[in-house]
């Protein structure tokens, strides 16, 4: 864990078995669009993880998520209980429907009239069905916008493999081209809602009489196996032990805290900036397999023991308040804080925030009309990330043994000691 203060800135059918992307090609399996000239895309595809929409969907959905891992239904029921408490419905599909509509509206407002389709990896509507619908409507050059902002196997490369797989599964082959926008972890539209959320949370605690030293800002993201983290990012760049995945999150957290510090003289925030750290959530898999640490609940316990009076949890690894956020943070982490008499507030994810939706459209327009769009935006020294991933980028770590479990309610093999639902990355 990195502690310290930041200084002001200067029931549907199961999906087919995954198809590997040939190492001789970019990881999206397709020729990437050059950033300097229009590629003639005629439709956008919002690519998500998927989630159940009723009690009867829960176990089939979790079977899709854990396909090939040999996990019996009895173990999947551990995670199913999280969904069943909400009527078997994941919030992620409704969120993506709303995001699709917001993207369509924002594109039209800017005079770009391309349709926005939506498809998932693990539940209806499946990506292959979205691609088929687009092609049936005459659209054969598709630009995908994934619902994950960072670089790792499960949060970037696997989505690009999904795009290559969709071409094969639909039998469309070379008849359709599908590319993806760049990872957008440090795009202003993604970061701005977190800055506003942290400032608001700190102001609330200040009104309750808490000094900056009483409050800790705890950034969280999905844990992934150390082997996957070390492989994240291009091979030719050095990011440290946690690879690009860890480095990107820390860089974004620093940007957020720098922006909060820069506004410290504003009446809406405290006159100093609290300490902050990065924690991980939703770990899954056998205990002997190393994952990124520390766990958010463990950090909360340590903070309480050290005399911290309140914690602001900032889920910078996620774009929406899906099940993994609502259960792992709003339920479990909040309960841990309450058990240790620690004040707790959780900052909202970007969701449908105006700046986030506008930022996603900026990313789309970078590729639709790059000759007429502004400079590619990035708030950290790590970006702007490239459109196409080089060979070997974000490879999967050593294979996980059969029978390892998912762990939290979002279904991601990147999740915490029991089955996970992984709506975040997978």
Q: Average pLDDT, to the nearest integer?
A: 84
What is the third-level CATH name, the topology of the largest domain?
Rossmann fold
CATH architecture of the largest domain: 3-Layer(aba) Sandwich
State the strand order across the main sheet: 2-1-3-4
CATH class of the largest domain, please?
Alpha Beta
Shape: globular
Structural class, by secondary structure, is alpha/beta
- Number of discrete domains: 2
What Rg is obtained from the alpha carbons, in whole angstroms? 21 Å
- Distance from N terminus to C terminus (CA atoms, Å) equals 25 Å
What is the overall number of helices?
A: 11
- Uncertain stretches: 1-38, 399-419
What share of residues is helical?
25-40%
SSE ordering:
EHHHEHEHEHEHHEHEHEH
Oligomer state equals single chain
Into which percentage range does the β-strand content fall?
5-15%
- The tally of beta strands, per DSSP, is 8
Main sheet record: 4 strands, parallel
Descriptive overview:
This protein has 426 residues and is α/β, with parallel strands linked by helices. The chain has two domains: 43-184 and 354-368, Rossmann fold (3-Layer(aba) Sandwich); 188-346, 3-Layer(aba) Sandwich (Rossmann fold), CATH 3.40.50. Helix content is 36%, strand content 11%. It has eleven helices and eight strands. The protein has helices at residues 58-65, 73-84, 91-109, 127-136, 153-169, 188-207, 226-231, 243-262, 296-305, 323-339, 354-368, and strands spanning 43-48, 116-120, 141-146, 177-180, 215-222, 275-281, 310-314, 343-346. Strands 2-1-3-4 form a four-stranded parallel sheet, sandwiched between helices. A four-stranded parallel sheet has the order 6-5-7-8, sandwiched between helices. Strand 7 (310-314), helix 10 and strand 8 (343-346) form a beta-alpha-beta unit. Helix 1 packs across helix 2 and helix 3 (91-109) crosses helix 11 (354-368). It is globular and about 60 Å long. Residues 1-38 and 399-419 have low confidence and may be disordered.
């Amino acid at each position: 864990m990195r502690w310290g203060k930041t200084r002001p800135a200067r029931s549907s059918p199961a999906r087919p078995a995954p198809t590997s992307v040939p190492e001789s090609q970019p990881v999206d399996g397709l020729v990437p669009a050059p950033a300097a000239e229009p590629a003639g895309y005629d439709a956008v595809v919002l690519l998500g993880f998927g989630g159940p929409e009723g009690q009867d969907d829960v176990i089939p959905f979790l079977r899709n998520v854990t396909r090939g891992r040999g996990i019996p239904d009895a173990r999947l029921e551990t995670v199913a209980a999280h969904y069943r408490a909400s009527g078997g419905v994941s919030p992620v599909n409704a969120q993506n429907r709303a995001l699709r509509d917001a993207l369509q509206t924002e594109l039209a407002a800017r005079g770009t009239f391309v349709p926005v389709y939506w498809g998932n990896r693990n539940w209806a509507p499946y990506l292959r069905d979205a691609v088929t619908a687009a092609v049936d409507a005459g659209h054969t050059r598709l630009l995908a916008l994934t619902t994950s902002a960072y670089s790792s196997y499960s949060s970037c490369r696997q989505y690009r493999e999904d795009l290559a797989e969709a071409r094969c599964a639909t039998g469309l082959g070379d008849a359709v081209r599908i590319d993806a926008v760049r990872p957008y972890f440090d795009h202003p539209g993604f970061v701005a809602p977190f800055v506003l959320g942290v400032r608001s949370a700190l102001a609330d605690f200040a009104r309750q009489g808490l000094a900056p030293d009483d409050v800790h800002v705890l950034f969280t993201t999905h844990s992934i196996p150390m082997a996957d983290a070390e492989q994240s990012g291009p091979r030719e760049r050095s990011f440290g032990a946690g690879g690009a995945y860890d480095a990107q999150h820390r860089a974004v957290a620093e940007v957020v805290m720098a922006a909060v510090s820069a506004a410290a003289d504003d009446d809406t925030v405290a006159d100093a900036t609290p300490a902050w750290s990065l924690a991980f959530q939703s770990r899954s898999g056998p205990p002997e397999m190393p994952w990124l640490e520390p766990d958010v609940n463990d950090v909360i316990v340590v903070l309480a023991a050290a005399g911290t009076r309140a914690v602001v949890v900032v889920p910078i690894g996620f774009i929406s308040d899906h099940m993994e956020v609502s259960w792992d943070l709003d339920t479990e982490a909040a309960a841990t804080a309450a058990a240790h008499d620690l004040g707790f507030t959780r900052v909202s994810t970007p969701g449908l925030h105006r700046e986030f939706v506008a930022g996603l459209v900026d990313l789309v327009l970078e590729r639709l009309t790059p000759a007429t769009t502004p400079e590619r935006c990035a708030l950290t020294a790590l970006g702007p990330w490239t459109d196409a991933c080089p060979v070997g980028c974000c490879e999967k770590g050593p294979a996980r043994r059969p029978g390892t479990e998912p762990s939290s309610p979002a279904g991601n093999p990147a999740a915490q000691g029991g089955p996970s639902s992984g709506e975040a990355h997978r």
